[in-house]
Write a structure and sequence with these properties.
Blueprint lengths: L1 H17 L5 H34 L4 H31 L4 H33 L2 H16 L1 H18 L1
Amino acid sequence: MAAVLRAALALVDESQRQKTRPDFTRLRAMLFYIDEFPEKHHHRKESELLFPALRARTPLSRHLLERLDDDHACAEHNIRSVEHALAAFEFLGEPRRVEFEEAMARYADFYMMHMAVEETEVFPLAEQALIDEDWQQLDEAFSHQAESGVAQEERLCFAALLARISG
């Protein structure tokens, strides 16, 4: 996610510097990936598997996990705003450039902050609070999802999309 966000910001920055229109097809692919991957995989696994395990083990996680669940809830709306701003820029031209660039920057800041909280607060808390039985149940749940034929096929599709984004 971070790599795709950074690549999208770099593409936007390059078009600003060169005073050209960005590669809209590539940006749409990046935004599609950002929209699809977290919503169908990352957020769902956290909210349905990891967060309940943490809530059961420690009250320290309550406010933190509520905030991250709120982030998950508004992430779809936020990325739709960026996608709309991109379409407006593509179809209506320069008058909509700044709106898109600002929406993209806001979303990237929001998501990078969200990931930083997970990495610096949630994962260390999980390592501290969860017991072996919790980790075993999480591993089984994640493995079960990953082993399904749909999950394997979808992983291949996402890999192809990432390759396309990378150019």
